């Protein structure tokens, strides 16, 4: 009994952990961003895909455990795009987000940024985000590349303009002490990145407001398309995109401002960059799954709050929709 509780019965295409609880979502997203899947060999990937195909066709060899099937699904989902069936380029996989994104986070949070360095790091960050978004896009419906380009240009423009504008204002604030100015300057990346994320969501998903998104009944069947649900989905996603970078871009500057006052580091200044890098890496790795897990991927809304035609099409009192990431 203890073994089955630790490893639930395998269900193809379903999450291993309960998505109704925060802990279940946390364990699910830790699996998704697990960087160990970056080192899976081609042979192991093919074996995992074959194992899942055998399960699907009812030809599974005897002795295969649920744990092996869950592990095979984790590997396939980490590497293969669910809609296109093609391998996702390693730096743009969700499992590569922390290892490939950390150098950019370190650069964004370096003290004493110039206007040029601010522009370069914000551009690199939004370029990496845009590539990750495109590589992990929903490809069931063809989306024009122009939509992604609009989101990318809008995100880069808003991030750079806000970051540069805030830095210029801080430098002109003569009443601030040098220490206060440095702390505030280090916190600049957060509002810049958060606003860019909102801009990106708004530009890339504004067509959903006019076309609506699918809402599902309790059996997973599509009830209809709702513009009201789309508005809720975009608002929730935008809020999520503000919460996500908060710990990543706020905690390291606060931690470093304390560590830099330690006598040991004041006499060993060359250690500041390595320690700063470790603080960014640890904060990023711990914060990302926690932040993503705050909100369920599939959200629910009462039918009475939606369009009349949705209420007429189902007996369910609550329907579900994909919020998006």
Automatic annotation (TrEMBL):
It is a multi-pass membrane protein. It comes from Seriola lalandi dorsalis. It holds the Pfam family SFXNs. Keywords: Amino-acid transport, Membrane, Mitochondrion, Transmembrane, Transmembrane helix, Transport. PANTHER family: SIDEROFLEXIN, SIDEROFLEXIN-5. One of its GO terms (cellular component) is mitochondrial inner membrane. This is Sidoreflexin. One of its GO terms (molecular function) is citrate transmembrane transporter activity. The keyword Membrane applies. Its main location: mitochondrion. GO terms for biological process: amino acid transport; mitochondrial transmembrane transport. It is found in: Mitochondrion membrane. The keyword Membrane applies. The chain crosses the membrane at residues 238-259, 271-295. Belongs to the sideroflexin family.
């Amino acid at each position: 009994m203890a073994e089955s509780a630790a490893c639930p019965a395998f269900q193809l295409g379903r999450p291993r952990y309960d998505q109704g609880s925060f802990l279940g979502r946390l364990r699910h997203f830790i699996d998704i961003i697990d960087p160990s899947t970056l080192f899976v060999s081609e042979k192991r990937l093919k074996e995992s895909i074959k194992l899942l195909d055998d399960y699907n066709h009812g030809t599974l060899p005897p002795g295969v455990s649920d744990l092996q099937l869950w592990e095979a699904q984790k590997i396939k989902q980490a590497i293969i795009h669910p809609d296109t069936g093609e391998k996702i380029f390693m730096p743009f996989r969700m499992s590569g987000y922390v290892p490939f994104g950390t150098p950019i986070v370190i650069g964004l949070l370096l003290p004493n940024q110039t206007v040029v360095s601010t522009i370069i790091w914000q551009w690199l960050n939004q370029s990496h985000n845009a590539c990750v978004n495109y590589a992990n896009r929903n490809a069931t419906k063809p989306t024009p590349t122009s939509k992604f380009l609009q989101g990318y240009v809008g995100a880069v423009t808003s991030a750079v303009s806000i970051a540069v504008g805030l830095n210029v204002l801080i430098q002109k604030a003569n009443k601030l002490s040098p220490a206060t100015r440095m702390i505030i300057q280090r916190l600049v990346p957060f509002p810049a990145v958060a606003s860019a994320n909102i801009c990106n969501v708004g530009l890339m998903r504004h067509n959903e407001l006019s076309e609506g998104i699918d809402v599902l009944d309790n059996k997973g069947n599509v009830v209809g398309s709702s513009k009201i649900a789309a508005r809720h989905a975009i608002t929730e996603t935008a809020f999520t995109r503000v919460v996500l970078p908060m710990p990543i871009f706020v905690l390291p500057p606060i931690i470093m401002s304390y560590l830099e006052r330690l006598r040991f580091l004041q006499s060993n200044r060359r250690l500041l960059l390595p320690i700063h890098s470790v603080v960014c890496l640890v904060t990023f790795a711990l914060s990302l799954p926690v932040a993503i897990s705050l909100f369920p991927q599939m959200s629910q809304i009462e039918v009475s709050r939606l369009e009349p035609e949705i209420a007429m099409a189902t007996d369910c009192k609550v329907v579900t929709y994909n919020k998006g990431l």
